[in-house]
Amino acid sequence: MEKKYSISDASRQVEVENHVLRYWEEELGLNIHRNSKGHRFYTDRDIKRFAACVFGSMMACPLAAGAASRITLKSSSS
User: Fold this and answer.
1) Quick check: helix, strand or coil at residue 22?
2) In this structure, is the dihedral angle defined by the CA atoms of residues 16, 62, 30 and 34, taken in order, positive or negative?
3) Which of 23, 28, 53, 54 is surrounded by the most beta carbons within 10 Å?
4) Dihedrals phi, psi of 41, to nearest 5 degrees
5) Is the separation of the CB atoms in 51 and 14 below 8 Å?
6) Is there a contact between 7 and 50 (Cβ–Cβ < 8 Å)?
7) Which residues of 11-28 are buried (b: 16+ CB within 10 A; e: fewer)?
């Protein structure tokens, strides 16, 4: 069975704030899964796509190069 992550867990792994994942979903028209209560959940595939934008080359971001330039990263002290 595929692992499912809450928005808090996913944002922690990608090192962005929760609102960044919600922003990407809305602005980029991403199809993020929801449970029966309407809460978002993220898969390993989702997290890998987000991580490619944050940790990899922004030019190679599979989401959108324009949106990636507006990402607010968490400080390493948080």
Assistant:
1) helix
2) negative
3) 53
4) -140, 150
5) yes
6) no
7) bebbbbeeebbebbbeee
C-alpha distances in Å from residue 9, one per residue of 14, 22, 44, 48, 69 = 9, 13, 11, 13, 23
Return the H-helix or E-strand segment holding 13.
helix 7-14
pLDDT in tens, the chain (78 residues): 889 999 999 999 998 999 999 988 887 778 899 999 999 999 998 898 888 777 765 555 666 544 544 545 444 444
**Four-CA torsion 60, 43, 30, 37, nearest 10 degrees:** -160
